[in-house]
Amino acid sequence: MSTNNDLTYEYLTLEQLLKALSLRDLTDPKQGIHAMQQLISEAETAIQSLWSCYIQRLNANPIVPVYENYDALGYPDDGASRDSRYSRYVNKDLMLRTQTSSAVPAWLSSWRHYRPESLGLLSHGLVYRRDCIDRWHSAEPHQLDIWIVLPKSQASDEQILHDSIAALMGTLLPNHKVAISTSPHPYTQNGVQLDAIEQGNIDQGELVEIGECGNIDPALLDRNGWSSEHYTGLAMGLGLDRVLMLRKGIPDIRLLRDPEPRVQTQMQTLSPWQPVSRQPITGRDLSLVVDQHIDMDIIGDKVRLALEEQAEWLEDIQLVSRTAYQALPPVAIARLGIAEHQDNLLLRLVLRHPSQSLPTALANEIRNTVYLALNEGSQTHLAI
């Protein structure tokens, strides 16, 4: 572990690195057909019908220089996203990419001496993060970056942004309303966040974040050989897992990889999801002691590492309550073995495999594995 500007950097073990790299990339046709690839083709068609430009597709190496993932895109040196609590480092110079936009600066620079009238990029593949556990989140989601570079004479910044969002959302999510809100980003101007309303939850107004976009930062264009006096463009990043779930009506992100034949058959097309018999929920509550600075993303990562393949049984981790040491009664302090710098968390594990039944003994085993991975108190309380 090393530190820099109050950020911490832990490196992956060889086993962790190989496990991450062995995961199937659902956007890659060479690794098998998947509906996610159809979304990428639809996005390409939508862009080609809107802007006259040469478009490249790129699925680059997921191991990237730290410089390309952050510095080249304009991230600040002390940005929280650099911390290894949220990013996965191979060593001080290399990491598993957190975004497919890490390929963009080198791509822009590679065209600096040719500079066609206009240029487009579809950069796609797995990205690697540390994230919470619920039906919308994965530690290895798929991302699609859509970048378009155009001469300013062809369209204004506002037109590029408005027309591109309308065309792409109308194509990828034709039956969903998409809300747009302001969201600053290191390598864009006029940045916005895109949130879709999940079908069946319109009355409640439940929003699902599906991406961010904006006009390309002029400084990024200038650094890579495209004069911002003459060029502008679009930078959009979409979470393909969520877009596919919304498009098909898939209720759980784990289903995208579920090997159950009835599930995998449905992952070949964009046809609406036909429910596969779901198992009843099994719940387990945990009262445990943690560092006061830990958050649900770190908890999710610790749990995934501890459970390994058994993580597929865990549908959700819900934070029921969080209580500081100072607010606990003496009897609870003694029972938990908690210190002044720690908090007492009450977590609820929601256990349900997408297609298999869960034995009670296995539910208790999973509960105890999670408890031992997270609890930092001096007292231990396991389920029997």
TrEMBL record:
One of the protein's GO biological processes: tRNA aminoacylation
Domain annotation Aminoacyl-transfer RNA synthetases class-II family profile: ranges: 65-272
Source superkingdom: Bacteria
An annotated Gene Ontology molecular function: ATP binding
SUPFAM superfamilies: Anticodon-binding domain of PheRS, Class II aaRS and biotin synthetases
Pfam families the UniProt entry points to: tRNA-synt_2d
Annotated Gene3D superfamilies: Bira Bifunctional Protein, Domain 2, Ferrodoxin-fold anticodon-binding domain
Keyword Ligase: yes
InterPro entries hit by this protein: aa-tRNA-synth_II (IPR006195), aa-tRNA-synth_II/BPL/LPL (IPR045864), Fdx_antiC-bd (IPR005121), Fdx_antiC-bd_sf (IPR036690), Phenylalanyl-tRNA_Synthase (IPR002319)
Keyword annotations of the record: Aminoacyl-tRNA synthetase, ATP-binding, Ligase, Nucleotide-binding, Protein biosynthesis, Transit peptide
FDX-ACB domain: residues covered: 277-383
Family classification: Belongs to the class-II aminoacyl-tRNA synthetase family.
Name this protein carries in UniProt: Phenylalanyl-tRNA synthetase
Organism: Marinomonas spartinae
